[in-house]
Protein backbone atom coordinates (compact mmCIF):
# COMPACT_ATOMS: atom_id res chain seq x y z
CA UNK A 1 0.00 0.00 0.00
CA UNK A 2 1.54 3.36 -0.97
CA UNK A 3 2.25 5.66 1.97
CA UNK A 4 -0.31 8.44 2.46
CA UNK A 5 2.40 10.94 3.46
CA UNK A 6 5.52 12.09 1.61
CA UNK A 7 7.96 14.04 3.85
CA UNK A 8 10.07 15.01 0.82
CA UNK A 9 7.38 17.43 -0.46
CA UNK A 10 7.68 20.90 1.11
CA UNK A 11 4.57 22.58 2.63
CA UNK A 12 2.45 24.51 0.15
CA UNK A 13 2.22 28.00 1.60
CA UNK A 14 -1.55 27.75 0.94
CA UNK A 15 -4.07 27.67 3.82
CA UNK A 16 -6.81 25.06 4.16
CA UNK A 17 -10.07 26.88 3.46
CA UNK A 18 -11.76 25.01 6.31
CA UNK A 19 -9.37 25.49 9.24
CA UNK A 20 -6.64 27.84 8.05
CA UNK A 21 -3.77 25.37 8.58
CA UNK A 22 -1.03 25.27 5.92
CA UNK A 23 -1.74 22.42 3.46
CA UNK A 24 0.99 19.76 3.47
CA UNK A 25 1.45 16.06 2.72
CA UNK A 26 4.59 15.43 4.81
CA UNK A 27 3.09 14.41 8.16
CA UNK A 28 -0.32 12.79 8.54
CA UNK A 29 -0.72 13.69 12.25
CA UNK A 30 -0.06 17.40 11.75
CA UNK A 31 -2.54 20.17 10.87
CA UNK A 32 -3.27 20.73 7.16
CA UNK A 33 -2.52 17.16 6.01
CA UNK A 34 -3.66 16.07 2.52
CA UNK A 35 -2.78 12.54 1.31
CA UNK A 36 0.29 12.76 -0.95
CA UNK A 37 -1.39 11.49 -4.13
CA UNK A 38 -4.26 13.94 -3.74
CA UNK A 39 -1.84 16.75 -2.87
CA UNK A 40 0.26 16.17 -5.99
CA UNK A 41 -2.85 16.02 -8.17
CA UNK A 42 -4.05 19.40 -6.85
CA UNK A 43 -0.58 20.98 -6.96
CA UNK A 44 -0.19 19.93 -10.62
CA UNK A 45 -3.02 22.33 -11.50
CA UNK A 46 -0.88 25.29 -10.44
CA UNK A 47 -1.56 27.76 -7.61
CA UNK A 48 -5.34 27.67 -8.18
CA UNK A 49 -5.41 23.90 -7.59
CA UNK A 50 -4.68 23.93 -3.87
CA UNK A 51 -6.47 27.23 -3.20
CA UNK A 52 -9.92 26.43 -1.89
CA UNK A 53 -9.01 22.82 -1.05
CA UNK A 54 -9.58 21.46 2.45
CA UNK A 55 -7.31 19.22 4.49
CA UNK A 56 -8.23 15.61 5.25
CA UNK A 57 -9.34 16.53 8.77
CA UNK A 58 -11.76 19.27 7.64
CA UNK A 59 -13.13 16.98 4.96
CA UNK A 60 -13.78 14.27 7.53
CA UNK A 61 -15.54 16.82 9.75
CA UNK A 62 -17.68 18.25 6.96
CA UNK A 63 -18.71 14.90 5.47
CA UNK A 64 -18.63 12.39 8.29
CA UNK A 65 -18.76 14.62 11.36
CA UNK A 66 -15.65 12.81 12.54
CA UNK A 67 -12.33 14.41 13.45
CA UNK A 68 -9.04 12.67 12.93
CA UNK A 69 -7.26 12.58 16.28
CA UNK A 70 -5.41 15.87 16.42
CA UNK A 71 -5.10 18.01 19.53
CA UNK A 72 -3.34 21.31 19.99
CA UNK A 73 -2.17 21.82 23.56
CA UNK A 74 -3.64 24.88 25.35
CA UNK A 75 -0.25 26.68 25.39
CA UNK A 76 -0.09 26.44 21.58
CA UNK A 77 -3.61 27.86 21.26
CA UNK A 78 -2.71 30.76 23.53
CA UNK A 79 0.53 31.37 21.65
CA UNK A 80 -1.22 31.65 18.25
CA UNK A 81 -3.89 34.01 19.59
CA UNK A 82 -1.47 36.04 21.68
CA UNK A 83 0.94 36.56 18.77
CA UNK A 84 -1.93 37.69 16.54
CA UNK A 85 -3.15 40.22 19.11
CA UNK A 86 0.34 41.64 19.60
CA UNK A 87 0.82 42.55 15.95
CA UNK A 88 1.45 46.29 15.54
CA UNK A 89 -1.87 48.03 14.66
CA UNK A 90 -2.06 48.44 10.89
CA UNK A 91 -4.39 51.43 10.98
CA UNK A 92 -3.18 53.25 14.06
CA UNK A 93 -5.84 51.57 16.18
CA UNK A 94 -5.73 48.30 18.09
CA UNK A 95 -8.09 45.42 17.35
CA UNK A 96 -11.60 44.94 18.66
CA UNK A 97 -12.03 41.57 20.37
CA UNK A 98 -15.34 39.84 19.76
CA UNK A 99 -15.40 37.36 22.64
CA UNK A 100 -17.93 34.56 22.05
CA UNK A 101 -19.15 32.48 24.97
CA UNK A 102 -21.79 29.79 25.35
CA UNK A 103 -24.38 31.23 27.79
CA UNK A 104 -25.07 27.72 29.09
CA UNK A 105 -21.46 27.53 30.30
CA UNK A 106 -21.76 30.45 32.74
CA UNK A 107 -19.75 31.02 34.85
CA UNK A 108 -17.53 30.94 31.75
CA UNK A 109 -14.15 29.40 32.68
CA UNK A 110 -12.24 31.28 29.95
CA UNK A 111 -13.59 34.80 30.65
CA UNK A 112 -11.24 35.34 33.65
CA UNK A 113 -8.28 34.38 31.40
CA UNK A 114 -9.04 37.22 28.94
CA UNK A 115 -7.21 40.03 30.77
CA UNK A 116 -4.05 37.83 30.96
CA UNK A 117 -4.35 36.84 27.28
CA UNK A 118 -4.60 40.52 26.35
CA UNK A 119 -1.87 41.67 28.73
CA UNK A 120 -0.66 45.26 29.06
CA UNK A 121 1.17 45.20 25.71
CA UNK A 122 -1.90 44.46 23.54
CA UNK A 123 -3.14 47.68 21.93
CA UNK A 124 -6.76 46.44 22.09
CA UNK A 125 -9.37 49.12 21.72
CA UNK A 126 -12.06 47.10 23.46
CA UNK A 127 -13.92 43.84 23.99
CA UNK A 128 -17.45 43.13 22.78
CA UNK A 129 -18.87 40.09 24.58
CA UNK A 130 -21.28 37.90 22.62
CA UNK A 131 -23.44 35.44 24.59
CA UNK A 132 -24.18 32.70 22.07
CA UNK A 133 -26.65 29.75 21.93
CA UNK A 134 -29.54 31.67 23.56
CA UNK A 135 -31.82 29.85 21.08
CA UNK A 136 -31.33 26.58 22.97
CA UNK A 137 -32.71 27.88 26.27
CA UNK A 138 -36.46 27.79 26.97
CA UNK A 139 -37.96 31.04 28.33
CA UNK A 140 -38.84 30.34 31.96
CA UNK A 141 -40.65 33.70 32.38
CA UNK A 142 -41.09 37.08 30.66
CA UNK A 143 -37.86 39.05 30.43
CA UNK A 144 -35.58 36.02 30.63
CA UNK A 145 -33.19 37.49 28.03
CA UNK A 146 -32.77 40.72 30.04
CA UNK A 147 -31.93 38.60 33.08
CA UNK A 148 -29.42 36.55 31.05
CA UNK A 149 -27.75 39.74 29.82
CA UNK A 150 -27.45 41.06 33.41
CA UNK A 151 -25.93 37.71 34.44
CA UNK A 152 -23.39 38.05 31.64
CA UNK A 153 -22.57 41.65 32.67
CA UNK A 154 -21.93 40.47 36.26
CA UNK A 155 -19.61 37.69 34.97
CA UNK A 156 -17.67 40.28 32.90
CA UNK A 157 -17.31 42.56 35.94
CA UNK A 158 -16.00 39.67 38.06
CA UNK A 159 -13.45 38.87 35.33
CA UNK A 160 -12.20 42.49 35.38
CA UNK A 161 -13.91 43.50 32.12
CA UNK A 162 -15.71 46.78 32.72
CA UNK A 163 -15.77 50.48 31.83
CA UNK A 164 -14.59 51.70 28.41
CA UNK A 165 -12.80 48.37 27.72
CA UNK A 166 -16.20 46.59 27.58
CA UNK A 167 -17.80 47.90 24.38
CA UNK A 168 -21.10 46.00 24.72
CA UNK A 169 -22.77 42.70 25.60
CA UNK A 170 -25.00 41.07 22.97
CA UNK A 171 -27.11 37.89 23.05
CA UNK A 172 -27.25 35.92 19.79
CA UNK A 173 -27.68 32.56 18.17
CA UNK A 174 -25.01 32.16 15.51
CA UNK A 175 -26.85 29.06 14.31
CA UNK A 176 -30.42 30.37 13.90
CA UNK A 177 -29.38 33.98 13.21
CA UNK A 178 -31.20 35.45 16.23
CA UNK A 179 -29.63 38.79 17.30
CA UNK A 180 -27.00 38.72 14.51
CA UNK A 181 -28.47 41.64 12.52
CA UNK A 182 -28.45 43.66 15.78
CA UNK A 183 -24.82 42.68 16.38
CA UNK A 184 -23.86 43.76 12.83
CA UNK A 185 -25.65 47.11 13.32
CA UNK A 186 -23.85 47.63 16.65
CA UNK A 187 -20.45 46.84 15.12
CA UNK A 188 -21.08 49.17 12.19
CA UNK A 189 -22.40 51.96 14.41
CA UNK A 190 -19.68 51.96 17.06
CA UNK A 191 -16.64 50.28 15.53
CA UNK A 192 -17.30 51.31 11.91
CA UNK A 193 -14.12 50.27 10.07
CA UNK A 194 -11.59 51.51 12.63
CA UNK A 195 -9.39 48.43 13.02
CA UNK A 196 -9.27 44.68 12.68
CA UNK A 197 -11.67 42.44 14.61
CA UNK A 198 -10.70 39.14 16.26
CA UNK A 199 -13.22 36.46 17.22
CA UNK A 200 -12.10 34.74 20.41
CA UNK A 201 -13.75 32.01 22.43
CA UNK A 202 -13.51 28.58 23.99
CA UNK A 203 -13.90 25.47 21.86
CA UNK A 204 -17.58 24.69 21.19
CA UNK A 205 -18.71 28.24 21.99
CA UNK A 206 -20.05 28.61 18.43
CA UNK A 207 -17.27 31.02 17.43
CA UNK A 208 -16.65 29.53 13.96
CA UNK A 209 -20.41 29.35 13.34
CA UNK A 210 -20.61 33.09 14.11
CA UNK A 211 -17.66 33.71 11.75
CA UNK A 212 -19.55 31.88 9.00
CA UNK A 213 -22.79 33.77 9.73
CA UNK A 214 -21.00 37.15 9.67
CA UNK A 215 -19.30 36.13 6.42
CA UNK A 216 -22.76 35.87 4.82
CA UNK A 217 -24.02 39.12 6.38
CA UNK A 218 -23.70 42.86 5.70
CA UNK A 219 -20.58 42.89 7.88
CA UNK A 220 -18.48 41.33 5.13
CA UNK A 221 -17.46 42.89 1.80
CA UNK A 222 -20.09 41.94 -0.74
CA UNK A 223 -17.86 39.85 -3.02
CA UNK A 224 -16.04 38.09 -0.20
CA UNK A 225 -18.40 35.12 0.43
CA UNK A 226 -17.79 33.99 -3.16
CA UNK A 227 -14.03 34.00 -2.59
CA UNK A 228 -13.61 32.93 1.03
CA UNK A 229 -14.75 29.47 2.10
CA UNK A 230 -16.55 29.10 5.40
CA UNK A 231 -14.73 27.77 8.44
CA UNK A 232 -15.41 24.11 9.16
CA UNK A 233 -18.23 23.99 11.69
CA UNK A 234 -18.05 21.06 14.05
CA UNK A 235 -18.66 20.27 17.69
CA UNK A 236 -15.22 18.69 18.05
CA UNK A 237 -12.92 20.82 20.23
CA UNK A 238 -10.29 23.01 18.57
CA UNK A 239 -11.23 22.83 14.89
CA UNK A 240 -10.00 26.28 13.79
CA UNK A 241 -6.29 25.66 13.66
CA UNK A 242 -5.02 28.93 12.24
CA UNK A 243 -6.31 32.39 11.50
CA UNK A 244 -9.09 32.55 8.91
CA UNK A 245 -10.26 36.02 7.91
CA UNK A 246 -12.69 38.01 5.78
CA UNK A 247 -12.61 41.72 4.82
CA UNK A 248 -15.03 44.01 6.71
CA UNK A 249 -17.25 46.25 4.60
CA UNK A 250 -16.84 50.00 5.14
CA UNK A 251 -20.20 51.16 6.57
CA UNK A 252 -20.62 54.41 4.62
CA UNK A 253 -23.71 56.58 5.27
CA UNK A 254 -25.27 55.35 2.01
CA UNK A 255 -24.71 51.68 2.90
CA UNK A 256 -26.11 52.11 6.40
CA UNK A 257 -29.20 53.87 4.97
CA UNK A 258 -29.79 51.09 2.40
CA UNK A 259 -29.32 48.45 5.10
CA UNK A 260 -31.83 50.15 7.43
CA UNK A 261 -34.35 50.33 4.58
CA UNK A 262 -33.98 46.57 3.97
CA UNK A 263 -34.40 45.77 7.67
CA UNK A 264 -37.49 48.03 7.92
CA UNK A 265 -39.05 46.39 4.88
CA UNK A 266 -38.37 42.88 6.23
CA UNK A 267 -39.92 43.82 9.59
CA UNK A 268 -43.26 44.59 7.91
CA UNK A 269 -43.57 41.05 6.50
CA UNK A 270 -45.56 38.33 8.20
CA UNK A 271 -44.71 34.65 8.02
CA UNK A 272 -47.53 34.14 5.50
CA UNK A 273 -45.81 36.50 3.05
CA UNK A 274 -42.63 34.45 2.89
CA UNK A 275 -41.90 32.23 -0.11
CA UNK A 276 -42.39 28.47 0.36
CA UNK A 277 -38.61 28.03 0.38
CA UNK A 278 -38.19 30.71 3.09
CA UNK A 279 -41.01 29.15 5.15
CA UNK A 280 -39.40 25.73 4.92
CA UNK A 281 -36.03 27.13 6.07
CA UNK A 282 -37.74 29.05 8.90
CA UNK A 283 -39.59 25.95 10.11
CA UNK A 284 -36.32 24.04 10.12
CA UNK A 285 -34.74 26.78 12.31
CA UNK A 286 -37.77 26.79 14.64
CA UNK A 287 -37.21 23.08 15.31
CA UNK A 288 -33.61 23.85 16.17
CA UNK A 289 -34.12 26.85 18.47
CA UNK A 290 -36.60 28.87 20.52
CA UNK A 291 -35.26 32.16 19.08
CA UNK A 292 -34.85 32.60 15.34
CA UNK A 293 -33.71 35.50 13.16
CA UNK A 294 -32.98 35.80 9.46
CA UNK A 295 -29.58 37.17 8.44
CA UNK A 296 -29.79 38.89 5.04
CA UNK A 297 -27.59 40.73 2.57
CA UNK A 298 -28.30 44.28 1.41
CA UNK A 299 -25.50 44.66 -1.09
CA UNK A 300 -25.66 41.41 -3.03
CA UNK A 301 -28.28 38.89 -4.12
CA UNK A 302 -28.06 35.83 -1.91
CA UNK A 303 -27.09 32.64 -3.64
CA UNK A 304 -30.03 30.32 -4.22
CA UNK A 305 -28.62 27.84 -1.70
CA UNK A 306 -29.13 28.73 1.97
CA UNK A 307 -26.14 26.59 2.86
CA UNK A 308 -22.80 26.79 1.07
CA UNK A 309 -20.99 23.55 1.68
CA UNK A 310 -17.80 21.88 0.58
CA UNK A 311 -18.21 20.22 -2.79
CA UNK A 312 -17.20 16.59 -2.19
CA UNK A 313 -16.28 16.05 -5.84
CA UNK A 314 -13.89 18.97 -6.09
CA UNK A 315 -12.58 19.04 -2.58
CA UNK A 316 -11.95 15.54 -1.46
CA UNK A 317 -11.99 11.86 -0.90
CA UNK A 318 -13.32 9.41 1.61
CA UNK A 319 -11.04 7.93 4.19
CA UNK A 320 -10.87 4.55 2.51
CA UNK A 321 -11.17 5.40 -1.18
CA UNK A 322 -8.65 6.63 -3.70
CA UNK A 323 -8.86 10.38 -4.28
CA UNK A 324 -11.25 11.37 -7.05
CA UNK A 325 -9.76 13.47 -9.82
CA UNK A 326 -11.40 16.86 -9.53
CA UNK A 327 -13.35 18.20 -12.50
CA UNK A 328 -11.68 21.42 -13.66
CA UNK A 329 -14.04 23.66 -11.68
CA UNK A 330 -11.34 25.29 -9.59
CA UNK A 331 -9.33 26.77 -12.49
CA UNK A 332 -11.04 30.15 -12.50
CA UNK A 333 -11.29 30.85 -8.78
CA UNK A 334 -12.10 34.49 -8.13
CA UNK A 335 -9.45 36.55 -6.37
CA UNK A 336 -9.60 39.93 -4.62
CA UNK A 337 -8.05 42.81 -6.54
CA UNK A 338 -5.27 44.78 -4.87
CA UNK A 339 -7.55 47.81 -4.45
CA UNK A 340 -10.23 45.72 -2.72
CA UNK A 341 -7.92 44.64 0.11
CA UNK A 342 -5.08 47.19 0.31
CA UNK A 343 -6.80 49.20 3.08
CA UNK A 344 -9.17 46.47 4.25
CA UNK A 345 -9.93 45.83 7.89
CA UNK A 346 -10.25 42.12 8.54
CA UNK A 347 -12.38 39.96 10.79
CA UNK A 348 -10.24 37.03 12.00
CA UNK A 349 -11.42 33.72 13.40
CA UNK A 350 -8.97 32.27 15.94
CA UNK A 351 -8.39 28.76 17.31
CA UNK A 352 -10.75 27.77 20.10
CA UNK A 353 -9.31 28.03 23.60
CA UNK A 354 -9.43 24.54 25.11
CA UNK A 355 -11.40 24.39 28.38
CA UNK A 356 -9.60 22.40 31.02
CA UNK A 357 -11.67 20.28 33.48
CA UNK A 358 -14.28 19.81 30.73
CA UNK A 359 -16.07 16.48 30.28
CA UNK A 360 -16.04 16.92 26.48
CA UNK A 361 -12.26 16.40 26.52
CA UNK A 362 -12.90 12.81 27.72
CA UNK A 363 -15.39 11.94 24.98
CA UNK A 364 -15.19 10.55 21.45
CA UNK A 365 -16.57 12.53 18.48
CA UNK A 366 -19.73 10.42 18.47
CA UNK A 367 -20.28 11.01 22.19
CA UNK A 368 -19.65 14.77 21.86
CA UNK A 369 -22.41 14.93 19.22
CA UNK A 370 -24.89 13.39 21.67
CA UNK A 371 -23.83 15.59 24.59
CA UNK A 372 -23.70 19.00 22.88
CA UNK A 373 -27.30 20.22 22.41
CA UNK A 374 -28.07 20.90 18.74
CA UNK A 375 -31.81 21.57 19.18
CA UNK A 376 -33.94 23.63 21.57
CA UNK A 377 -33.59 22.03 25.02
CA UNK A 378 -36.83 20.61 26.41
CA UNK A 379 -36.69 20.76 30.24
CA UNK A 380 -37.35 17.45 32.05
CA UNK A 381 -38.64 17.81 35.62
CA UNK A 382 -38.79 15.08 38.29
CA UNK A 383 -40.07 15.19 41.87
CA UNK A 384 -37.75 13.26 44.19
CA UNK A 385 -37.99 12.22 47.83
CA UNK A 386 -34.95 11.77 50.07
CA UNK A 387 -33.26 8.46 49.22
CA UNK A 388 -33.72 8.90 45.45
CA UNK A 389 -31.03 9.33 42.80
CA UNK A 390 -31.03 10.98 39.35
CA UNK A 391 -28.58 9.96 36.59
CA UNK A 392 -27.79 12.10 33.53
CA UNK A 393 -26.46 9.44 31.15
CA UNK A 394 -23.37 8.00 32.92
CA UNK A 395 -21.81 11.48 33.08
CA UNK A 396 -23.52 12.85 36.16
CA UNK A 397 -25.42 11.69 39.22
CA UNK A 398 -27.30 13.54 41.99
CA UNK A 399 -28.32 11.81 45.25
CA UNK A 400 -31.04 13.43 47.38
CA UNK A 401 -29.71 12.36 50.80
CA UNK A 402 -31.62 14.37 53.40
CA UNK A 403 -34.65 16.68 53.51
CA UNK A 404 -38.12 16.84 55.05
CA UNK A 405 -40.16 17.10 51.83
CA UNK A 406 -39.96 16.15 48.14
CA UNK A 407 -38.05 18.57 45.85
CA UNK A 408 -38.12 19.24 42.11
CA UNK A 409 -35.11 18.49 39.89
CA UNK A 410 -35.26 20.01 36.37
CA UNK A 411 -32.72 18.65 33.88
CA UNK A 412 -31.40 20.95 31.12
CA UNK A 413 -29.18 18.97 28.78
CA UNK A 414 -29.15 17.63 25.23
CA UNK A 415 -32.51 15.99 24.49
CA UNK A 416 -30.53 12.94 23.30
CA UNK A 417 -29.08 12.23 26.75
CA UNK A 418 -31.20 9.84 28.88
CA UNK A 419 -32.24 10.68 32.45
CA UNK A 420 -32.91 7.81 34.88
CA UNK A 421 -34.26 7.96 38.43
CA UNK A 422 -33.64 5.16 40.91
CA UNK A 423 -33.21 4.58 44.65
CA UNK A 424 -30.03 5.08 46.61
CA UNK A 425 -29.79 1.33 47.32
CA UNK A 426 -29.95 0.50 43.56
CA UNK A 427 -27.83 3.37 42.20
CA UNK A 428 -24.36 1.78 42.29
CA UNK A 429 -25.64 -1.44 40.72
CA UNK A 430 -27.42 0.52 37.95
CA UNK A 431 -24.21 2.42 37.13
CA UNK A 432 -22.00 -0.69 37.16
CA UNK A 433 -24.44 -2.63 34.98
CA UNK A 434 -25.37 0.07 32.45
CA UNK A 435 -22.40 2.51 32.16
CA UNK A 436 -21.04 2.11 28.63
CA UNK A 437 -24.31 0.49 27.43
CA UNK A 438 -27.32 1.85 25.50
CA UNK A 439 -29.42 2.38 28.67
CA UNK A 440 -27.19 5.25 29.88
CA UNK A 441 -25.94 5.95 26.30
CA UNK A 442 -22.80 8.04 27.04
CA UNK A 443 -20.02 6.94 27.30
CA UNK A 444 -20.55 4.17 24.73
CA UNK A 445 -18.34 1.16 24.09
CA UNK A 446 -19.10 -1.26 26.91
CA UNK A 447 -16.70 -2.53 29.55
CA UNK A 448 -13.58 -1.73 27.51
CA UNK A 449 -14.56 1.95 27.26
CA UNK A 450 -15.42 2.19 30.95
CA UNK A 451 -12.06 0.71 31.97
CA UNK A 452 -10.34 3.83 30.61
CA UNK A 453 -13.10 6.28 31.62
CA UNK A 454 -12.54 8.17 34.91
CA UNK A 455 -14.79 7.11 37.82
CA UNK A 456 -17.56 9.39 39.11
CA UNK A 457 -16.39 11.36 42.15
CA UNK A 458 -18.76 12.93 44.74
CA UNK A 459 -19.19 16.41 46.15
CA UNK A 460 -21.65 17.17 48.99
CA UNK A 461 -23.96 20.17 48.50
CA UNK A 462 -26.31 21.84 51.03
CA UNK A 463 -29.12 24.04 49.70
CA UNK A 464 -31.97 25.97 51.33
CA UNK A 465 -35.22 26.21 49.33
CA UNK A 466 -36.80 29.58 48.44
CA UNK A 467 -40.23 28.40 47.23
CA UNK A 468 -42.01 25.84 45.09
CA UNK A 469 -41.85 27.89 41.85
CA UNK A 470 -38.27 29.25 42.03
CA UNK A 471 -35.10 27.17 41.86
CA UNK A 472 -32.44 27.84 44.47
CA UNK A 473 -29.42 26.70 42.41
CA UNK A 474 -28.20 24.83 39.35
CA UNK A 475 -25.92 21.84 39.78
CA UNK A 476 -23.78 22.06 36.65
CA UNK A 477 -22.38 18.65 35.71
CA UNK A 478 -19.37 19.99 33.77
CA UNK A 479 -20.49 20.57 30.15
CA UNK A 480 -22.92 17.62 30.14
CA UNK A 481 -25.81 19.84 31.32
CA UNK A 482 -27.26 21.00 34.61
CA UNK A 483 -30.03 20.26 37.10
CA UNK A 484 -32.05 23.15 38.59
CA UNK A 485 -33.16 22.33 42.16
CA UNK A 486 -36.46 23.77 43.43
CA UNK A 487 -37.51 23.20 47.06
CA UNK A 488 -40.06 24.42 49.63
CA UNK A 489 -39.20 27.72 51.33
CA UNK A 490 -36.58 27.34 54.10
CA UNK A 491 -36.38 23.60 53.37
CA UNK A 492 -32.79 22.35 53.85
CA UNK A 493 -31.55 19.72 51.41
CA UNK A 494 -28.40 17.64 51.56
CA UNK A 495 -27.37 16.43 48.10
CA UNK A 496 -24.38 14.53 46.80
CA UNK A 497 -23.47 15.24 43.17
CA UNK A 498 -21.01 13.26 41.02
CA UNK A 499 -19.09 14.01 37.81
CA UNK A 500 -16.19 12.10 36.19
CA UNK A 501 -12.86 12.60 38.00
CA UNK A 502 -10.96 15.62 36.64
CA UNK A 503 -14.08 17.49 35.45
CA UNK A 504 -15.62 20.57 37.04
CA UNK A 505 -18.81 20.37 39.09
CA UNK A 506 -20.24 23.85 39.72
CA UNK A 507 -23.08 24.97 41.99
CA UNK A 508 -24.53 27.97 40.13
CA UNK A 509 -26.31 30.40 42.45
CA UNK A 510 -28.53 32.10 41.40
CA UNK A 511 -29.65 29.61 38.72
CA UNK A 512 -29.65 30.50 35.03
CA UNK A 513 -33.40 29.80 34.58
CA UNK A 514 -34.92 30.10 38.08
CA UNK A 515 -38.55 29.38 37.10
CA UNK A 516 -37.79 26.43 34.84
CA UNK A 517 -39.64 23.87 37.00
CA UNK A 518 -42.92 25.61 36.05
CA UNK A 519 -42.34 24.76 32.36
CA UNK A 520 -43.82 21.27 32.64
CA UNK A 521 -46.96 19.28 31.93
CA UNK A 522 -48.94 17.10 34.32
CA UNK A 523 -47.36 14.42 36.54
CA UNK A 524 -47.05 11.00 34.87
CA UNK A 525 -48.99 8.67 37.21
CA UNK A 526 -46.89 6.17 39.15
CA UNK A 527 -43.57 7.86 38.27
CA UNK A 528 -41.48 10.77 39.61
CA UNK A 529 -41.59 12.41 36.13
CA UNK A 530 -43.73 15.20 34.70
CA UNK A 531 -44.80 15.36 31.07
CA UNK A 532 -42.53 17.70 29.12
CA UNK A 533 -43.70 20.97 27.65
CA UNK A 534 -41.93 22.79 24.81
CA UNK A 535 -42.47 26.57 24.73
CA UNK A 536 -43.18 28.11 21.28
CA UNK A 537 -40.42 29.60 19.10
CA UNK A 538 -40.12 33.35 18.52
CA UNK A 539 -38.97 34.83 15.18
CA UNK A 540 -37.40 38.30 15.20
CA UNK A 541 -37.47 40.62 12.14
CA UNK A 542 -41.00 39.39 11.27
CA UNK A 543 -44.33 40.96 12.12
CA UNK A 544 -46.43 38.58 14.19
CA UNK A 545 -50.17 38.24 13.77
CA UNK A 546 -51.76 39.05 17.12
CA UNK A 547 -49.44 36.74 19.10
CA UNK A 548 -45.96 37.27 20.55
Automatic annotation (TrEMBL):
Q: Which InterPro entries match?
A: GTP-bd, Mito_transl_resp_regulator, NOA1/YqeH-like_C, P-loop_NTPase
A Pfam family per the record: YqeH-like_C
Q: Where is the NOA1/YqeH-like C-terminal domain?
A: 409-509
Molecular function (GO) terms for this protein are: GTP binding
The segment(s) forming the G domain are 197-247
Please provide the record's keywords in A-Z order: Coiled coil
Which parts of the chain are coiled coil?
Answer: 253-280
PANTHER family per the record? NITRIC OXIDE-ASSOCIATED PROTEIN 1 (PTHR46406)
Name of the protein described by the UniProt record: NOA1 protein
Its source organism is Agelaius phoeniceus
Q: What is the lineage of its organism?
A: Eukaryota, Metazoa, Chordata, Craniata, Vertebrata
Amino acid sequence: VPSLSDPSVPPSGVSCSGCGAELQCGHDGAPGFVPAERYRSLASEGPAGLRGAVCQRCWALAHHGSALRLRLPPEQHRRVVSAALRRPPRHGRGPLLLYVLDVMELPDPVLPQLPALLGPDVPAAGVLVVGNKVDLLPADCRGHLGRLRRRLAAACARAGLRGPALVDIRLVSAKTGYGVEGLVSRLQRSWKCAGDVYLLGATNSGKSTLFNTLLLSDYCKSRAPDIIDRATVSPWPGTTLNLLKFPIINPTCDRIFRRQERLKEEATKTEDQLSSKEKKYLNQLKKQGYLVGEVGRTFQQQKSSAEIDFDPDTLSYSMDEDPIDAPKKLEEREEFTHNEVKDARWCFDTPGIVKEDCVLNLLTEKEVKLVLPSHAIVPRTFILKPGMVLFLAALGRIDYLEGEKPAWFSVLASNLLPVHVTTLSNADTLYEKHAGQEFLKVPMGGEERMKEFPPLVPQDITLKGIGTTEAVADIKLSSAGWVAVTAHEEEELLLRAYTPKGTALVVREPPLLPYISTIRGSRIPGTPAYRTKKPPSFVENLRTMGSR
